[in-house]
Design goal:
Strand 9 and strand 10 form a beta hairpin. The protein starts with a strand and ends with a strand. The longest helix has 7 residues. It contains 3 helices and 16 strands. 27% of the residues are buried. It is mainly β.
Length: 232
């Protein structure tokens, strides 16, 4: 396996995200948006090429050369930060989704998530500055291995899903003794038919537990820079 440098949060402009409450019939008065609880760095896109692999002694060079003229592969990475609330309203869960599309292209020529990271993790980790790639461009989270407890109930902090589909997503959950707080690095290898224009549309939602009202779902209002990414 070879390593790719992954951009850190400071490498791209970061935006504070407003969280807008979903309409709930039981609330006596309209809830205000939450601010200052989530921020996200501008997603960064990096084409992966056989020449790049050769320069870095990458063992995925042969794979990319075998795909030349059929598919292009790109690395999409971003960092999202969850902050604690001074008012004692913690995050219960959160989700980040990415919808990949090639406008005006048929279904068999749509981009897909070739590989995603992280996939399963029981605890938060310090975001790494490197990503590991296997010979077939599968992402591996270096130094993190998920091992379910014997005889115990699984409590996963993050689950990634949607590999080989056009709508990958990550779901974060606060677990017993582990609040949903801190920086999280997400990465995605996107496979796009060669020379086809492609887009990524990002969405985010979260649930906050308030003392008086209980669980309140919110959706994120993302600025245009974060909402839609043009791969080309």
């Amino acid at each position: 396996m070879t390593a790719l440098d992954q951009p850190t949060k400071s490498a791209a402009p970061t935006y504070d995200i407003d969280l807008v409450p979903t309409l709930l019939l039981r609330t006596p008065t309209p809830l205000l948006p939450l601010t200052g609880r989530i921020s996200m760095g501008t997603p960064l896109v990096r084409p992966l090429t056989a020449a790049q692999a050769a320069e870095g002694d990458g063992d995925w060079q042969d794979f990319l050369e075998s795909q030349a003229g059929q598919y292009d592969y790109l690395l999409l990475s971003l960092v999202c930060s969850f902050r604690p609330s001074p008012g004692g309203a913690p995050f219960v869960d959160a989700g980040i989704g990415i919808r990949l599309e090639a406008p005006d292209e048929p279904a068999d020529r749509q981009p897909i998530a070739w590989s995603i990271s992280p996939k399963r993790r029981a605890l938060p980790v310090t975001p790494s500055t490197q990503l590991k790639l296997t010979a077939k461009l599968m992402l591996v989270e270096a130094g993190v291995e998920y091992t379910p407890e014997q005889g115990g109930r699984e409590e996963l902090f993050v689950v990634g899903m949607g590999e080989r589909d056009s709508d990958p997503e990550w779901r974060f959950s606060a677990t017993t003794g582990t609040p949903l707080v801190g920086d999280e690095s997400l990465a995605l290898i996107v496979r796009v038919p060669a020379d086809v224009p492609a887009l990524a549309h990002i969405t985010m939602a979260a649930t906050v537990k308030q003392r008086r009202l209980g669980l309140i779902p919110y959706r994120a209002e993302l600025p245009p820079t974060l909402r839609t990414i043009d791969f080309r």
